[in-house]
């Protein structure tokens, strides 16, 4: 018996969480199909390229496996992570990257589809949105959690939920709430702790940042320009003096001379010496650099409902030369003695998730699933991530196998193969023309009026 190659070993390792052994073949075929250099990676094209001489049977088995088979996504993603993470050198620096991605979608029946912001289009449109958590190092990154965001209108619509197969335990949750659930599970699973990175859609949420701190994880997250902070040397007023009766006041107060400022106002008030040009990495077109300022501040959101001031943390501001105003802001709980360059490098590590999504969508068919159900949507995404995980592991292996070299080769299709729905495989139809049918009849029009044209026979 020949020794199994690396892809066979990988597939065999992942199959241990599938349950029934009859799912193993479909799992391997689906993953191999996703890695093939073909344009479209929905079920039918995968079946055609994986088994070109039995397309119909293979299409049926793959569709059942991805859309209906009751295997769990989370254990599979854990298995992928456990294979890839040891090769990522996380001990030298780990990052947990929170993000979401959109898939433009027509119609209204696909699970979770609604008019909402779609990052792929850069505007509001009809789409599905999924929230993910990725683990990253200096060398690589990998999604380790993935879940569809279910808009509130969908979450409360029992009929649509049943048709799409949304599990009973899934209720409406905001994107920050979904990401926090993913972070808690990652921490419980023993994943190497890392700095949590997120854009302003998550970082502006004070409860999101506070929960990350409660989980004893550092963060470096984007915030909106209007977020308020206490600058060095300013602070709220203490609680009101105690009266003779009742409980003593404990909440902080604001007043003239004791008011926070927005991070934008703070940035615009800094002197020139506060800004330095920092280079954080080598890009495809050269060194990436910009101007940054870093200030120690205390976040001020609703602290007039608190008894004490929040802890100090970093406010990092980017203001590129030539821009009329600052372009980006981050709050970070990295240590007070961290260098500005290290702070900038950490904030900019979110670029890795953009590369993940680019490769997952363009090369591994993440957005190509054509079904409408909850299970199929997540199964397809999990299988795309599994295929991506194999390619990442191969690239990180000693000697560094190139991405395309690790991919299986696509078999040639039969000469008579035609994709479903192409129109070229339609059955021939007899010509039907009402006027010609009438003119060809020898009966008079009075007798024709009572006879269906579709059943009329020539005399």
At CATH's second level, what is the architecture of the domain at 73-237 and 257-396?
Answer: Alpha-Beta Complex
Task: State the end-to-end CA separation.
Answer: 73 Å
- Number of DSSP helical runs: 16
The name CATH uses for the topology of the domain at 73-237 and 257-396 is Transposase Inhibitor Protein From Tn5, Chain A, domain 1
Helix content: 25-40%
Give the percentage of residues in beta strands: 15-25%
CATH homolog superfamily of the domain at 73-237 and 257-396: Transposase Inhibitor Protein From Tn5, Chain A, domain 1
Radius of gyration: 29 Å
* Biggest pleated-sheet summary: 12 strands, mixed
Query: What is the level 1 CATH name of the domain at 73-237 and 257-396?
Result: Alpha Beta
Global morphology: globular
Mean pLDDT, all residues: 86
- The low-confidence parts are 423-459
Number of distinct beta strands: 12
Order of helices and strands: HHHHHEEEEHHHEHHEEEHEEEEHHHHH
- Overall structural class, as computed from helix and strand content, comes to alpha+beta
Topology:
Elements: H1 6-15, H2 24-35, H3 43-50, H4 55-67, H5 73-84, E1 95-104, E2 114-118, E3 123-136, E4 141-148, H6 152-155, H7 158-164, H8 175-188, E5 195-198, H9 200-203, H10 206-214, E6 219-222, E7 228-230, E8 261-262, H11 263-268, E9 276-283, E10 286-299, E11 313-318, E12 328-332, H12 340-347, H13 351-362, H14 374-396, H15 434-439, H16 445-448
Parallel strand pairs: 1-5, 5-6
Antiparallel strand pairs: 1-3, 2-3, 3-4, 6-12, 7-8, 7-10, 9-10, 10-11, 11-12
Helix pairs in contact: 1-2, 1-5, 2-3, 2-14, 3-4, 5-14
């Amino acid at each position: 018996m020949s020794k199994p190659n690396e892809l066979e070993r990988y597939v065999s390792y992942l199959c241990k969480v599938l349950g029934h052994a009859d799912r193993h073949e479909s799992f391997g075929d689906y993953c191999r199909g996703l890695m093939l250099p073909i344009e479209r990676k929905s079920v039918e094209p995968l079946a055609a390229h994986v088994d070109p001489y039995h397309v119909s049977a293979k299409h049926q088995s793959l569709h059942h496996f991805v859309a209906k088979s009751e295997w769990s996504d989370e254990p599979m993603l854990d298995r992928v992570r456990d294979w890839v993470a040891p090769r990522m050198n996380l001990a030298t620096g780990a990052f947990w990257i929170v993000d979401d991605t959109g898939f433009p979608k027509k119609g209204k029946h696909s699970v979770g589809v609604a008019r909402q912001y779609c990052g792929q289009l850069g505007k509001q449109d009809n789409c599905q949105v999924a929230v993910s958590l990725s683990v990253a190092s200096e060398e690589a990154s990998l999604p380790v959690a993935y879940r569809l965001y279910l808009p509130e209108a969908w979450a409360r619509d029992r009929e649509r939920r049943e048709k799409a197969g949304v599990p009973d335990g899934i209720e409406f949750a905001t994107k920050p709430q979904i990401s926090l659930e993913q972070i808690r599970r990652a921490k419980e699973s023993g994943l190497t702790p890392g700095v949590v990175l997120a854009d302003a859609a998550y970082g502006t949420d004070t409860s999101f940042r506070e929960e990350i701190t409660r989980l004893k994880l550092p963060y470096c997250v984007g915030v909106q320009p209007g977020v308020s902070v206490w600058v060095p040397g300013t602070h709220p007023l203490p609680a009101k003096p105690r009266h003779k009766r009742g409980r003593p006041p404990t909440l902080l107060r604001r007043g003239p001379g004791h008011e926070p400022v927005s991070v934008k106002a703070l940035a615009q008030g800094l002197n020139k010496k506060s800004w330095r040009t920092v280079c954080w990495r080598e890009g495809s077109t050269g060194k990436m650099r910009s101007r940054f300022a870093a200030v120690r501040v205390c976040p001020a959101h609703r602290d007039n409902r608190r008894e004490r001031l929040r802890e100090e943390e970093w406010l990092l501001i980017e203001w590129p030369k030539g821009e009329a105003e600052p372009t980006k802001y981050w709050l970070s709980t990295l240590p007070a003695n961290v260098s500005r360059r290290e702070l900038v490098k950490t904030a900019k590590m979110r670029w890795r998730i953009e590369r993940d999504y680019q490769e997952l969508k363009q090369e591994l068919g993440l957005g190509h699933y054509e079904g409408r159900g909850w299970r199929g949507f997540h199964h397809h995404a999990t299988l795309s991530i599994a295929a991506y995980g194999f390619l990442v592991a191969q690239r990180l292996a000693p000697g560094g196998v190139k991405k395309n070299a690790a991919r299986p080769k696509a078999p040639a299709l039969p000469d008579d193969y035609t994709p479903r729905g192409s129109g070229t495989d339609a059955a021939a139809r007899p010509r039907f023309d009402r006027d010609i049918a009438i003119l060809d009849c020898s009966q008079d029009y009075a007798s024709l009026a009572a006879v269906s044209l579709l059943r009329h026979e020539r005399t």
